[in-house]
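INFO batch 0412 | record 1 of 1 | parsing
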Amino acid sequence: MSTDPELTPGGGPIQRGTEAPSDELPVGSRNAPKARRAARDPKRPGERCRAAPGHWIPVVDRAQCEGKAECVDVCPYAVFQIGTLTDEEYRSLSYLGRARARHHQFQTSRTPRAAECRACGLCVVACPEDALKLIRS
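INFO prediction complete | emitting tokens
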């Protein structure tokens, strides 16, 4: 029996939980328990971290995002970071969106490493505002 770790298609080791097969995820999430909870969500979209990088892109709805960093915590590929809305982004929001942005200190999720996305879907189900979706590139 081999003691080598099992690898994901991207080459990273699979982190196994005791729950269900959908609980498998690559090592790299900043908050592994939160990522495992997201992995068990039956509404999780995407390809369970099996897509090649760049085939899917995470899209942030700036009007919904409150910059709570759930996506940052669960993403095993460090696709996300929290940043500040630009003036242009802020001006493009509805009245309600601008009020929400002010209340949350103008924070929003950014995707500086979107090309590294492997369509885990963890970010989508972890986001409490439903501000994220995955689209095929």
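INFO post-check: Confidence is low (pLDDT under 50) at residues 1-22.
INFO record closed
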